[in-house]
TrEMBL record:
CCDC81 HU domain mapped to chain residues: 18-124, 146-217
Stretches of the chain forming a coiled coil according to its record: none
Pfam families noted in UniProt: HU-CCDC81_euk_1, HU-CCDC81_euk_2
Protein name: CCDC81 HU domain-containing protein
């Protein structure tokens, strides 16, 4: 199954998946005509794909309730900066060395399924996705800088009511769990990442161009430095709490 077949699955079961998405809705812009039920779903999820993509390029992980987290972690490939007691100083090393690429690293995007989706799966990326949060050189974005999906932003982009968007997202996420339990295979193409579920085993693959964008020098400087500074503050706060 894919996005469209899951939309169809939902629309054929109005009792199981109730909400505004089961009826044709007026647009918030009076100049735009109402869409049929399938097209309502299509435009909402087209906007969702763009929304996730843009949030990640801003350096934010995004949490979709009942679906999962689109995030990234910073992996160092070669030399590390001098060890500091204050993680904020790592960002200073990074700023000093970035022009010479002395501080080499890469940003690895990932998808981590929500706990409710995990329960429907036999296998899923788990501990291997999570680096030690105490490491000075690991920023695991599932727990840091996570933004929750804002239905209002998607609604504005589509000229739809916020409730319609939220109902559509909720219905899709629940339907996905249901079809996985029923042992349907699923392929969800988000354009920049493809998520596959086969035999209740989930795998994902991020587009190489998207990964390259995450690892450009400009993105490194403007986003990675902020990630390291935020992580340093979080680490220091945790030390104070423990003390």
């Amino acid at each position: 199954m894919n996005f469209e077949t899951i939309f169809d699955f939902i629309l054929k079961k109005p009792i199981d998946y109730p909400g505004k998405h089961q009826n044709q809705q007026n647009r918030t812009n009076p100049d735009l005509k109402p869409l049929n039920l399938m097209d309502q779903f299509k435009i909402i999820f087209k906007a969702l794909k763009v929304y996730i993509y843009e949030r990640m390029l801003e350096g934010n992980s995004l949490n979709l309730h009942n679906f999962g987290i689109f995030g990234f972690e910073i992996c160092q490939d070669t030399s590390r900066p001098t060890i500091h007691s204050n993680l904020c100083e790592i960002a200073k090393d990074f700023q000093n060395n970035i022009s010479d690429r002395l501080h080499k690293h890469r940003m690895r995007p990932f998808f981590a399924p929500d706990k409710n989706l995990k329960n429907a799966l036999v296998r899923y990326p788990g501990k291997e996705e999570i680096q030690d949060s105490n490491s000075q050189y690991s920023v695991f974005q599932q727990g840091n800088n996570v933004k929750f999906c804002n239905a209002s932003i998607i609604a504005q982009a589509c000229h739809f009511d916020k409730e319609l968007v939220q109902n559509s997202l909720n219905a899709f996420n629940q339907a996905l769990i249901d079809v996985v339990i029923k042992k349907f295979d699923v392929l969800l193409d988000f354009d920049f990442v493809v998520i596959k579920i086969k035999n209740r085993d989930i795998k994902y693959s991020f587009n190489l161009d998207f990964q390259n964008i995450l690892n450009t020098k400009i993105f490194d400087f403007e986003n990675l430095q902020l990630q390291l500074l935020n992580f340093g503050k979080l680490h220091n706060n945790n030390k104070k709490i423990k003390a």
